[in-house]
């Protein structure tokens, strides 16, 4: 993922408000100036965006995560997409490093199916393509009518986690949903894996029933697609402790939402490192043990290759 020297002037990167910092890094790597726009808010709370330079005929990559506050960031994405289309963008790709609502991917009882609703709404924005990073489920691709490039930050995060590995290390998925992701880490790092049997009781309450796999006297590297409230992680660590795992442990996640009491919970856990990608902007106050790994090189490489019609195969979530 080297720095780019020769990206042509038809490539445009527009970093939405939710991904402004990440956008600057991506543009530095690609050696392009971020597209200039203005985002206004009216007294009644409504927003309006205006692109402030010509993007006519350009290959536009609109970078915007839809992390909290999800509804605001989603609306910004839609307005920016509309402005790009009306301003004559030649091709428009949404780069959504974190896709909000992706966890609501199965209907239960009479509940709404948020992932489908969000996919439908994004579908109305007339994007040509979509890039996601470690979306909650690979099946999300099927929710969209447009082509989806499902990229993964696991190689970047695994590289960051590697110095913590010992002969006794084991990669641990804190629930069954993270097993595929854990397998990718385990393969890259050449260590065995285990997983925790968890059930979710509520938005911020989970229960761990036990560990499947050998973790006794082993040093866990706990991996997940996201950390929201920290409930899953705390429950997993409880189960690992009960099973005789070694402490302090390392955690790696792609999306650090840090909702609710996450910071407080993290402070109570026997961790030595909390490695997280910057798919969602991490704001103060300080997060215990945090080490941020940037996904800017991944996004820049994907944009550059997509712009040049080159393969993205090695950047995707493995099948
Ligand atoms: C669940 O299926 C996800 O992969 C995460 O484990 C979960 O959403 C994290 O949320 P929290 O930190 O609130 O438990």
Structural summary, described in words:
The protein is an alpha/beta fold and 319 residues long. The chain folds into 2 domains: 163 residues, Rossmann fold (3-Layer(aba) Sandwich), CATH 3.40.50.2020; 140 residues, 3-Layer(aba) Sandwich (Rossmann fold), CATH 3.40.50. 28% of the residues lie in helices and 27% in strands. A 7-stranded mixed β-sheet has the order 10-9-8-11-12-13-14, with helices on both faces. The chain has a 5-stranded parallel β-sheet with strand order 1-4-5-6-7, with helices on both faces. Helix 6 links the parallel strand 11 and strand 12. The N terminus is likely disordered. Ribose-5-phosphate binds next to strand 11 and helix 6.
The strand count comes to: 14
What is the architecture of the largest domain at the second tier of CATH? 3-Layer(aba) Sandwich
Low-confidence stretches: 1-6
> Under CATH, the topology of the largest domain is which?
Rossmann fold
Number of domains: 2
The multimeric state of the shown protein is: single chain
Secondary-structure element order, as H and E?
A: EHEEEHEHEEHEHEEEHEHEEH
Broad structural category: alpha/beta
Distinct ligands: ribose-5-phosphate
Query: What's the gyration radius in Å?
Result: 20 Å
The coarse overall form would be globular
Total helix count?
8
Mean pLDDT: 95
Strand content: 25-35%
CATH class of the largest domain: Alpha Beta
Q: What is the helical fraction, as a range of percent? A: 25-40%
Largest sheet: 7 strands, mixed
- Widest beta sheet: strand line-up: 10-9-8-11-12-13-14
* End-to-end gap: 22 Å
């Amino acid at each position: 993922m080297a720095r780019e020297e020769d990206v042509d002037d038809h490539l445009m990167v527009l970093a939405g408000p939710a991904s402004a910092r990440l956008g600057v890094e991506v543009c530095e790597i690609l050696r392009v100036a971020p597209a200039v726009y203005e985002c206004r808010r009216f007294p009644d709370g409504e927003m309006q965006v205006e692109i402030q330079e010509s993007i006519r005929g350009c290959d536009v990559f609109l970078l915007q995560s839809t992390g909290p506050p999800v509804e605001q960031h989603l609306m910004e994405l839609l307005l920016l997409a509309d402005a790009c289309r009306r301003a004559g963008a030649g091709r428009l790709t949404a780069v959504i490093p974190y896709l909000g609502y992706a966890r609501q991917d199965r209907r239960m009882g009479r509940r709404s199916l948020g992932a489908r609703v969000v996919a439908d709404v994004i579908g109305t924005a007339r994007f040509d393509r979509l890039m996601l990073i470690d979306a909650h489920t690979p099946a999300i691709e099927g929710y969209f009518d447009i082509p989806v490039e499902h990229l993964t930050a696991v190689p970047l995060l695994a590289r960051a986690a590697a110095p913590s590995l010992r002969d006794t290390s084991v990669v641990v998925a804190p629930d069954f949903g993270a097993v595929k992701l854990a397998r990718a880490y385990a393969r890259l790092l050449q260590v065995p894996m285990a997983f925790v049997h968890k059930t979710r009781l509520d938005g911020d309450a989970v229960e761990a029933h036990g560990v499947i796999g050998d973790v006794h006297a082993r040093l866990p590297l706990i991996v997940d697609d996201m950390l929201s409230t920290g409930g899953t992680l705390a429950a997993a660590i409880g189960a690992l402790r009960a099973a005789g795992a070694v402490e302090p442990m390392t955690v790696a996640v792609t999306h650090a939402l840090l909702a609710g009491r996450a910071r407080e919970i993290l402070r109570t856990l026997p961790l030595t490192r909390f490695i997280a990608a910057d798919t969602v902007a991490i704001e103060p106050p300080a997060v215990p043990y945090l080490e941020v790994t940037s996904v800017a090189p991944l996004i820049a490489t994907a944009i550059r290759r997509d712009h040049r019609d080159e393969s993205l195969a090695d950047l995707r979530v493995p099948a």
